[in-house]
Structures are given as structure tokens and as C-alpha cells.
């Protein structure tokens, strides 16, 4: 790549024009200058330095719901569509009501595009997901369709499932209420069997029983599934699921006996295109066959037929959590891709050791404080994607077993999915914002591309099981499993909890003190250390229980127990995930990904090294260790930091290749700073020139919403705009101020 | 407070109606139910349990820019004004362009209210700040006015200062450029002395020299101060400050030789009412006397007169940082107040030990995983507010000295303000989001009140000195100061760096190993431990330097050095801040605040205990300690956690009183979950009923912006709304889907 002429004052376009949008480019006659001219060269040079093929990684990891070729086909259609081409740039200029209208418009448009381009259902879902809007169709697919198929009987699946798959009906899933979310057993909505009509009556008896949060419910869904307390002849049978129609299909009018609406804007502007809703039922009648009856059912006359096992309906809860792990990794990878690219081309401060005043400033990514911040996050993103693939496979194995009435895998999958959901969602959320902060001041611009990522990831730490509550469940499981091992040291434990054996069996996890930083790169050292730390924390938890503290008061301690458990599991599955796809990935690609496995493990250890260096107190030593003995020597800790430093230095020249491996298209990222070609300053300036606020004119009403947020590249008025209201606000302000001053 | 009747279906208003807004209340005929009826009682009970007077704390700490009485006077005017009464509820319904117009409107309106109510300038600033908009007037006051007064000579202050104080001109401060922010020395804008006209010529030579970020510049400022490289007769004298007019006062038209505009929306919807701007100068002429000349000046003919000391102009940078500490504490205190109140009244799960099925569920705040999360954040908020008061005083002392040419305090104030700015802004940002997460799912609603807080705090970690860069400066200062002590053990060090003596002088920080959890409550234990940890980290940093690593490669290590330094200083100043105001605060109030000092210190230690428990490696022991010896015994760590637990338990019954002590008014918090009276479920339901999205009608255009985001309490249409566009989008979507399915 040749360097653009720093003296040139005309600029190449930054993208193609589509519809009313001219191609983006700088239009003022500005000499580019050395700093801006260098960015594309820096990026090309860094990309060329990759000693592996990023597309092999992309093609392997993107082969999920749809394969990579199909994904790119779908994205290409969207990125050339007049409505969607500049979608991500327009959204921050719309208010909630405008975003909601655009979301409905987009749903209709995507189904049209799907028909025109003969997309599969999965391709349609991919297209909807990629808009960063969390539209009602997303929720229809994530929460409504799977519940019908997972909890309905064959007849119900035939009756409703196909219509839902075809979008002939749009549905929502109503579980959470105003007063209860985490404690599902305490939901207040009732569904009472009425013998006379042989049907059910749905009712919301109190303010806090109002259904709350269901996506799509607010203004869209024609149908829904309601979780309610089943009551037959005065006796409560606990929460069950009921299917019902909500709105008239043609007019959208809510049915009688039902009130509903949108619950309001979400924090940080998140989910602007999703109508999370509220609903209240007033003795609302539904037929008896509307209870989802794969497991339990109610017969004519009110006889209740129990499910064959209480555990069978757990599958659904675990399903969503187990799908969240890789999704979380992908979200983090967006932040990482942007941060890697921008900090590479951003230069700030000359190296103080340089004697040549003509030396250019140093790439921000080359500072250890940046590299040490971002590379572990790169490793985490790959870790969650690959561990998440394992999680899905394990879930599918379990679901298969459950179909056959076998619950063997259930406990392990429950614990692992709870642990990883809680850990990965939090790490990803923090990591995304850390990436934004690493960009410096420009990261605060919406166009940096985080406006869609952080807010969208924010609720993941509280929905589908609050992370802190899930951590307690992991803690409880560790106590139970370790207790079983106490009684029977040869009891079977899943690989994800294998470290528990170290509590009572010396050498269950053989560990040799590292003698050099290179020793830390051995899996038998770092994975062992992760296992020993997790085991030590369980021992500490058991000691607190032994000291008389009740489990319910140990919820704080469980947080670290669950974190260390999760880091052990992610390490295990990250490595396994690479081996699963080794052939397709290729040798060099695996080698670099395996370096990320090591980096992930070492930085996970460094996050909390205390349990390994603290000499064991009385009664808190692992088997084979003595009271007063620490697992790790002080020198090993110094070597650990050295190992991390050296590994970061080794990986650094490969990071553009590694972030390319995620395969994000510029259109998907929607980021001026994360451009694949590195032309960040041109992009920032082009958008600042064309920013709609600088090109006044009556802001369009809802009816002409297609005009909202259009960037006017190349307007003659560039840099000279005066807002419509200057004359009514700022002018009079100054005049009045002058009058007051002269009183 | 008597409990509302759970069976009642009519509701008391939640506030007063103002203008077009009816009073907020639930209007559907819903029985309240036990859960909702209990919240106000729980809140009143918890408030009554305070064993001190929160108003004494409020009145003391709120006595800042204006006293508390004046603050409440101003807020009361705003909360009863038709424009501002529901300001915070309306903002999330406006898009960027609408928010910007509202911001200009608000600026004019507040100056009018100021005139009507005879507000002082400080009261006007307080009114503007409280709108959570970061309006151009805020920046005028924070960045433009202080620079004129701090860097202008007497004649310039007279010429421009008074006009600025009266809002006869509105200004911005242009420092950062597209290509350079952190590295100020490398700014590219030039200001060249022109001998012929005896004036200066401002010029933007390259793309990356475009001025960027200046608040108010985009669409508002009539004037500005530009930082540019001073060039006289071909020689560069480095960055200097220049005053210039930007726009025609009457029309708002940009002057010739200048293009400018708004840089675009910010991340997470932040700063929607601030027009951060860009500007380019094309050989733009300004008079010679427009260079701010308190220190340096240029004489007729081009003779450059150096400032008496290079250090004199540092004051300005330090000024803004030193003002950020308590502001950061106040921002955090908003999150803490909301989290404390909502988690108190939110109940989830019965205590498993209870045998009585009629027992109510447990307050979420009573779970250790919640209390241990929120109480340390409560302590941090008070810590930053009180340490921030000390910081301001110290700054003023230093500024006074600088006026007299005395730079004695400069180094200490520079290091302390850098350290605390970097540490407190990050802790507060993380803490605010932690508070939101502690709310569970409902924290994701904009009405929870975090939409204004987290995004507004987000840029603080990168502006006014990137936190990571500041951490390196702290690290460098610690190396320098400790080096000076090597050479001269009786060298004078400021109290904020006093711990450095422990590196070479045994017993500089006497420390006795705690023998009980209560021992940890002694300042001579916890403050000493904080000092020893900070010293140990400096020793580790020195060891890395000794091993041959250059300082520039130690930027990652400096982060923890700076954190531990900051925690030592916050601890020191938090305690001193309470003592400074002890009489006014009162005895009981001080006693509880001092428990927060302890809690802050203990949790700061617990954050990273490793340096204290790791046996010293060769060459890394503090004076008086041997190689292989740790500072803290393993049992002390267990006692530390016990001490924290017991202290949290002791403080817990006082938290409603302690959060009341911040003195936030419901109107200021703008939070449905943080209501002082605890009526959260009623508030959520009332707003869900009235949410504008549920009451369709053409969305107003910009001209009728006063109609945007009005909540329709008590409308006959409640719960039955159909969006305007259902007929054009969702209806056709379903019809087309049915057609496709039947093909």
C-alpha cells in the first residue's frame, strides 16, 4: 500500500453512495498531512505481518447458525440496501419513538428482502440480529418459538409452531412481573381452571403481578406465552405456561380483558427498537388446550397430570444461558476489533529514547499499558466464542438425553451454563467499556461504535438469571459435589468440576513450581494453577460453613468461587474448542490461538493470585499441602508477570491478523475508529462535515422518518451552518444578557 | 407511616401536576397488593432507624459553590417550572437535534429565571449543571471563564472577563485536535506573528490539526480561546493561548476565515445538549493583544517575553482536575442513593431458615452479596466528596502561593490531583454501573435514573488527562521522590507521599499485626497497611527499573502503583475532611462517617492484598523486613474479611440515613427506583401507563418540541393504544407472511 500524499487536498471516497446518501469523504480543501496519511499504511503493514491466515479462523468460527458465506451474502445485501446501508449511523439521531417505528419498518423490510433473495429462516434471523436493535422479531425467535417447540406437545407445535416459524403470528414470552423476576416461584399472575367452560381464566390480581419486560409485548405481538400459577379447584400447582392471543391480527387492537403497552425507554438508549411491554389480564379466558403440555397437562374436568420428572422443564432455562456464551464473546470481539485497529494507527508521543526529532510518534498499542489491557480481552473474546461452541454441543447432548428421559448430564450443564453465563457476560461488559476507554477521548463519540455494543450487552448481567444469584448456585453446587467426594473419593465428577478432587486427594492436580517464565506456558502449570485456585476457594468456603455461618450469608464469597470455577472451565473448553476444529483451522492458526489460550489462563490467574500465595491457615490446606504452606512461591508470581509480558510482546505483531479473524465487516461494526483500512481521521472529518445537526432544515416528522439522520456529504454549506433556532434562543439570550449588564 | 390498603384500587398522586402534565399516579383500577403496599412502610421504618441526623451531613457537605439553602431554593424553582418540572423524564424521548434545541432553550430560560429570582452567578451555574445536559453554558463556566481569569492579564480580564461573567459573550476552549489530545506539545494549529500588521494569523495546516471536542464550539460560542503553536519569525515557541471571536453576535454566522460545526452524537447518548465542536482556521487574523498574556507576551515587532517560570501556567491543568474529585463523589452518590433505596424495598426470596410460609420475602439489601457491593460504594462516595474538599483547599493554597511566585506546593498538588483524578473517576464510573446492576432487571429501565449518570461520567476517565497516562506520571513521581529519600533520608516529603519513607527507614510506618477483627478498625492498623502496600509497590517498581527495564515500558505496573497511592491519599483526606468540619457535622454524624472511613480503607486493602501477603523476593523487602517475609500474616487476611463483614452489618441499619445525607431531591435524581418515599412500583406502573409511545398521535416536529415526551397520566386510552404505524408495517408484514406460507 502506498502512502497517500500528505499535501493532497482531495480525498478518496470512504464508501459507496447508496440512495440519498452521497459517498462519504472529506470535501473541504484540507491538506491531509503526515499524521492522517500514515494510518492506512500502518494498518496495511500490520496486516501483512500476520504469519497465519485470518480467513481460516473466520470461516471456521463463523460457521454457526449459518455458514460464513451465507453471512457475508446477507450482510452484503443489507449494506447495499437504501434503508440499511447507513442504519447504524442514523440510529443515534432518532428518538425512541422514531427508532421503534424504524424497527417495525425494518422487520417488514427484512422479510421482503428474505423473500427476494430466498433467505433461509436462519439467514433472516441473522439479518435481524445484525441491526443492533433487538427488534420484536429477534425476541420472537429467541424466546417465543423455542418455548413452543420445547414445552408444547406435538399437536400444539403443529398448530402454532409452523405459523410462528413463518411469521404469520408474532409472539412474546411473558414471565417476569413488576414485583418478581428472580424468584419465579413467587409470580402472582394466576391461571385458574374453570370447570364450567372447561377452560382457563388468566388474571393479574395485584399491581405487582403486572407482566413486565416481555420483548414485543408493548406494541407488536399478536400472541404470547404467559407464565402463571396454575390453580385447580382452589389448589395451586405452581407456575405453568399458557399460550394466548393478545391482539386482533388485522387492526392490532388488544383483545378485551387485556391491557398492555410499552414499559418505556431503556437505560443508555439501549434496545430502542424493542417494545419491552407490560400487560394485565382481567379474568381473561383461554381454552384448556392452550396450556403448553409437553410435560404436565390438565384433563377435562380438572385432573392434573404431573410431568414424569420435575427436572424435565429445566431444559428451557439452561437453553438460553448456554446460547449466551459465544454470543457474549462475539459482542466483546467487536470492542476488541475497534480498539486494536484504532490504537494501532493512533500515535501519541515520540519514544523518549529517540534522539531523532523527525521520528514519528509511537503507536498507542505499542505501550504496555495499552497492549496489556487489550490483548487479554482479545484472548477472552476468542475464549468465550470457542468455549461457547462447546457449551452448545454439551447442551445439545443433554437435550437429546432428556428426550430419552435421561437426566445424567443435567446437573453439569446447569452448573457450567450458570457459571459461564454469570462470568462471561460480566467480563464482556467490563471488557467492552475497557476497550472504549483505551481509545482515549475519541472513544466518547457515538461513531466510535460502542453505542450499540455496551448498552446492548448491559442487561445480560441481570437477565436470564441475575449473575450474583447464579454465582450462589455455583457455590452451592461446589459444596454439594465436594461433599460427595468426601464420602466417596472415587465418585464421578464432570471434567468441569474435576479440580474438586484436589481438596481431599494429594496430587489430584500435580503441580510443579515454575522455574522460568517459559514454564508458565505449560498447560500442566497454568491449568493446574487454575484448578488449585478454584479448589482452594471451595476449601475456604467450606471452612466458613464449618465455622457456623449459614450458606445464605455466604453469597458474597460465592462470587469469587464462581469466577474461579468459570475461569477453569473456560480454559478447559477454549483449548478443547481449538482441538475440535484443528484441521479446519490449520496448524499456524491453531498455534496462535493456543497462545491466546495461554494468555487467557495467565491473566485469569493474575486477576486474583492471592489464594495461591497465601499460606494456608489452620484447616484450610488442600490435600498434600501443610498449614502455613502456600501453593505458589513469591518468585513464581514475578515469573508469572514476566511470562505475561513476554507473551504479549510475542503476540502483539499478530493482533491485526487476530482481530481480522473475527471477520467483522465495516458495515457490521459501524465504527469510524475500527475501519479495516485504518482511515480513521478522514472518516471522522467526513462525518463531522456532514453531521445533520450542521445542515439545518426542519427536522422531519415521524411521517417523513426516512429523512432523519441523513449525512450531507459534500454540501455547499459545509462548515457554515447555523441552527434553525439560533435566532430564537442564543441571539435573544445575548441581547437580554447585555441589557441586564447595562441596567 | 401507616401501610396503604393492599385491596385499595385508587392511588395517591406521586407528585404535583405542572403545566400540561397531570399529577403522576396509577389510574387503572388495580388492587395494590401486599408487595407494593409494603414499600413505603419499609422505607419509613428504615429511615426512622437512623441514629443520627442526615440533614446535618447534607447541610455541611452541600455547602460548596452555593450553600444548601440556596441549592434547594434553586431546585424548587426548577421543579415547579413547566419547562423543567419533568425535564429528566422527557430527555430520553428526544433525539440529538431535539436535545440540542432544548439545551439552547434551557440556557435562555435559566438566565430568565435567574433574573426573576435574583439568582447569583453561582446559583445560575448550579441550575444549569443540575439538568444533566452538559449545556454550552456549563462549559462556558468550567473551561472558558477560568482560562481568561487564570491566563489573561489585568487588561484582558477587564476587557473580556466581565462580559463573559454576564453571558454577554459565550465562549469555548479549543485545545484538543483531531490528531492530538494527550500530547499537547504536538498540537498542529499555528499562530504566526505577522510583523506587517502587528497581529497574529491562526491557521489549521492539516486534516489532523482540526480543533475537535471543544464544548459549545459546534453551534453556540460567540468567542473562543485557541491553543496554538506560537511562531515568530520562523521560530516556534510552543503552545500558547489566543482569544478570538468566532461568530457574528446577532446572526450566529461564522466569521470569514473559519469553518466549524458539531462533531456528532456522543456514546450512550451522553452530553446530548452539548455541541462539542470542530473548527478550522484559514489564515484567520487576530490582533496582537489577543494572546493571553498573564505570563508570556509578544511585544510589538515580535519580541517574545518569556514567563518568569515555566511552571506558572501548570496551574490551569491542575485546577480542573482538582475540581473533579468531589464532583465524582457526588455522581457516584446518585447511583448509591438509588441502589440503597430500591434494594431496601425490593424483596426477593423468603429466608430459607423460615418455617412460616406467611413470612415475607427478604429485602435484597439484606443479602451480603448486595450489602457488600453497595456499602463500600457508599463509603467511596463520601470519601471522594470529603477528600475532594481537601483537594480544593490545597489547590487554593497553591494558587495563592503561585500568585506570589512560590512553587513549593506545586509538585505535591500536581501528583495528588493526577492520582485522585485517575483513581476516583474510574472507581466512580465502575461503581455507578455496579449500582445499576445491583438493581436487577429494572435497573435497565431509563427511569431507574442511570441514563444521565453513567454516560455523563464516562468521558471523565479520558478527558483532562487520560487516566492511564496520569498513572504513569504518578509512578514517575514516586520514583523521583523515593530516589530523593535514598540520598537524604530526612528530605521533606508531603503527607500524601509520606509512606515512601518505609522503603528505607525501618519503622517509618509502625505496624502491629491485628489479632482480632476489631484490631482492623484502628487507623494505626488500616492506614499503616495502606501505606505499606503503596510503599511495597514502589519498591517493586524500582526493582523492575533496576532489572534494566526502561520506565516507558512500565506503564502497566504504574497503574497499580497509582491506585494504591490514591487509596492512601483518599484515606488520609477522608478522615481529615471529617475532622475539618467536625463541629458542624455533629458527634454522632462524625462517628458514622468515621465508620465509613474504616470501611473505605478496609475494602481498599481487600481490593488487592497480594503485595502485603506475598513474601518479599530478594531485593524487594521494605526496610525492617527480611527477604521471604510477608507484611501480613494469613490469619490477618481472614480477620480482615471478618472485620469488613461485621462493619457492613453494623452500618447496614443506617444506610437509608446515610444515603439521605447526600441530600438528593427526587427531582434531581429523576429515578422511579430511587424515590425517597419508596413507592417504586406505583411509580413504574404510572409511567408505563402514561408512556408517550402508548398514546399515539403524530410525533411533534421540532417546532412543537414542547410536546415531545409528555406523559399522559389518566388518559381514557390507557392500556389500549395502537401505534400509528401498525397499519403500515406490522399488519402488512403478517399478511405478506401468510401469503408466502400459502404459496
Automatic annotation (TrEMBL), chains A, B:
GO terms for cellular component: peroxisome
Cofactors (names): FAD
Span of domain Acyl-CoA oxidase C-terminal: 523-697
Domain Acyl-coenzyme A oxidase N-terminal: 57-169
Subcellular location: Peroxisome
InterPro entries, per database record: ACOX_C_alpha1, Acyl-CoA_ox_N, Acyl-CoA_Oxase/DH_mid-dom_sf, Acyl-CoA_oxidase, Acyl-CoA_oxidase_C, AcylCo_DH-like_C, AcylCoA_DH/ox_N_sf, AcylCoA_DH/oxidase_NM_dom_sf
Organism: Kalmanozyma brasiliensis (strain GHG001)
GO biological process: fatty acid beta-oxidation using acyl-CoA oxidase; lipid homeostasis
Keywords for this protein: FAD, Fatty acid metabolism, Flavoprotein, Lipid metabolism, Oxidoreductase, Peroxisome
Pathway linked to the protein: Lipid metabolism; peroxisomal fatty acid beta-oxidation
Annotated catalytic residues: 464 (proton acceptor)
Catalytic activity: a 2,3-saturated acyl-CoA + O2 = a (2E)-enoyl-CoA + H2O2
The protein, known as: Acyl-coenzyme A oxidase
Amino acid at each position: 500500500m502506498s502512502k497517500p500524499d500528505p499535501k493532497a487536498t482531495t480525498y478518496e471516497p470512504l464508501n459507496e453512495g447508496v440512495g440519498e446518501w452521497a459517498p462519504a469523504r472529506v470535501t473541504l480543501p484540507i491538506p491531509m498531512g503526515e499524521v492522517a496519511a500514515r494510518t492506512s499504511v500502518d494498518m496495511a503493514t500490520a496486516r501483512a505481518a500476520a504469519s497465519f491466515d485470518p480467513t481460516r479462523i473466520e470461516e471456521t468460527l463463523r460457521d454457526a447458525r449459518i455458514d460464513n458465506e451465507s453471512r457475508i451474502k446477507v450482510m452484503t445485501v443489507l449494506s447495499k440496501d437504501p434503508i440499511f446501508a447507513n442504519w447504524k449511523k442514523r440510529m443515534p439521531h432518532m428518538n425512541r419513538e422514531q427508532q421503534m417505528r424504524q424497527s417495525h419498518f425494518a422487520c417488514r423490510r427484512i422479510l421482503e428482502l428474505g423473500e427476494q433473495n430466498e433467505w433461509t429462516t436462519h439467514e433472516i434471523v441473522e439479518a435481524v440480529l445484525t441491526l443492533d436493535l433487538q427488534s420484536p422479531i429477534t425476541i420472537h425467535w429467541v424466546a417465543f418459538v423455542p418455548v413452543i417447540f420445547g414445552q408444547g406437545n406435538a399437536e400444539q407445535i403443529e398448530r402454532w409452531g409452523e405459523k410462528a416459524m413463518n411469521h404469520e403470528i408474532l409472539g412474546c414470552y411473558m414471565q417476569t412481573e413488576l414485583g418478581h423476576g428472580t424468584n419465579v416461584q413467587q409470580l402472582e399472575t394466576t391461571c385458574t381452571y374453570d370447570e364450567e367452560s372447561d377452560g382457563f381464566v388468566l388474571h393479574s390480581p395485584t399491581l405487582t403481578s403486572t407482566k413486565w419486560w416481555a420483548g414485543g409485548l408493548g406494541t407488536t405481538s399478536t400472541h404470547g406465552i404467559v407464565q402463571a400459577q396454575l390453580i385447580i379447584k382452589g389448589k395451586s400447582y405452581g407456575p405453568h405456561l399458557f399460550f394466548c392471543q393478545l391482539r386482533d391480527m388485522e387492526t392490532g387492537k388488544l383483545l378485551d380483558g387485556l391491557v398492555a403497552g410499552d414499559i418505556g425507554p431503556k437505560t443508555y438508549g439501549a434496545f430502542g427498537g424493542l417494545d419491552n411491554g407490560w400487560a394485565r389480564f382481567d379474568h381473561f379466558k383461554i381454552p384448556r388446550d392452550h396450556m403448553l403440555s409437553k410435560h404436565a397437562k390438565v384433563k377435562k374436568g380438572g385432573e392434573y397430570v404431573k410431568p414424569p420428572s420435575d427436572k424435565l422443564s429445566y431444559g428451557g432455562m439452561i437453553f438460553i444461558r448456554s446460547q449466551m456464551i459465544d454470543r457474549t464473546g462475539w459482542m466483546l470481539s467487536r470492542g476488541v476489533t475497534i480498539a486494536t485497529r484504532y490504537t494501532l494507527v493512533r500515535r501519541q508521543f515520540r519514544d523518549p529514547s529517540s534522539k531523532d526529532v523527525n521520528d514519528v510518534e509511537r503507536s498507542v498499542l505499542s505501550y504496555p499499558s495499552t497492549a496489556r489491557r487489550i490483548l487479554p480481552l482479545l484472548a477472552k473474546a476468542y475464549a468465550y466464542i470457542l468455549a461457547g461452541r462447546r457449551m452448545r454441543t454439551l447442551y445439545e447432548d443433554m437435550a437429546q438425553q432428556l428426550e430419552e428421559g435421561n437426566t445424567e448430564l443435567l446437573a453439569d450443564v446447569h452448573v457450567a451454563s450458570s457459571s459461564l453465563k454469570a462470568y462471561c457476560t460480566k467480563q464482556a461488559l467490563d471488557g467492552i467499556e475497557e476497550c472504549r476507554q483505551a481509545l482515549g477521548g475519541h472513544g466518547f463519540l457515538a461513531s466510535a461504535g460502542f453505542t450499540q455494543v455496551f448498552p446492548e450487552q448491559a442487561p445480560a448481567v441481570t437477565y436470564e438469571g441475575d449473575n450474583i444469584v447464579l454465582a450462589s448456585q455455583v457455590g452451592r453446587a461446589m459444596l454439594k459435589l465436594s461433599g460427595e467426594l468426601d464420602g466417596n473419593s472415587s465418585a464421578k465428577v464432570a471434567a468441569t468440576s474435576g479440580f474438586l478432587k484436589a481438596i481431599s486427594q494429594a496430587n489430584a492436580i500435580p503441580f510443579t513450581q515454575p522455574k522460568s517464565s517459559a514454564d508458565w506456558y505449560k498447560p500442566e502449570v497454568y491449568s493446574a494453577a487454575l484448578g488449585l485456585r478454584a479448589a482452594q476457594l471451595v476449601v475456604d468456603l467450606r471452612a466458613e460453613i464449618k465455622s457456623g455461618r449459614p450458606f445464605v450469608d455466604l453469597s458474597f464469597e460465592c462470587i469469587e468461587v464462581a469466577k474461579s470455577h468459570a475461569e477453569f472451565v473456560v480454559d478447559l473448553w477454549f483449548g478443547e474448542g481449538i482441538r475440535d476444529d484443528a484441521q479446519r483451522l490449520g496448524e499456524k492458526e491453531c498455534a496462535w490461538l493456543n497462545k491466546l489460550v495461554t494468555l487467557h489462563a495467565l491473566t485469569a490467574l493474575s486477576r486474583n493470585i492471592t489464594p495461591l500465595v497465601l499460606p494456608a491457615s489452620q484447616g484450610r490446606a488442600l490435600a498434600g499441602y501443610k498449614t502455613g504452606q502456600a501453593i505458589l512461591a513469591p518468585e513464581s508470581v514475578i515469573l508469572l508477570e514476566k511470562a505475561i509480558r513476554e507473551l504479549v510482546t510475542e503476540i502483539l505483531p499478530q493482533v491485526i491478523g487476530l482481530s481480522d479473524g473475527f471477520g467483522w465487516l465495516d458495515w457490521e461494526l459501524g465504527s469510524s475508529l475500527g475501519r479495516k483500512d485504518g482511515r480513521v481521521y478522514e472518516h471522522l472529518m467526513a462525518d463531522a462535515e456532514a453531521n445533520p445537526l450542521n445542515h439545518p432544515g426542519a427536522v422531519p416528522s415521524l411521517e417523513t422518518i426516512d429523512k432523519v439522520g441523513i449525512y450531507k456529504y459534500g454540501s455547499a454549506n459545509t462548515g457554515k451552518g447555523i441552527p434553525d433556532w439560533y435566532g430564537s434562543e442564543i441571539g435573544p439570550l445575548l441581547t437580554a444578557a447585555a441589557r441586564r449588564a447595562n441596567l
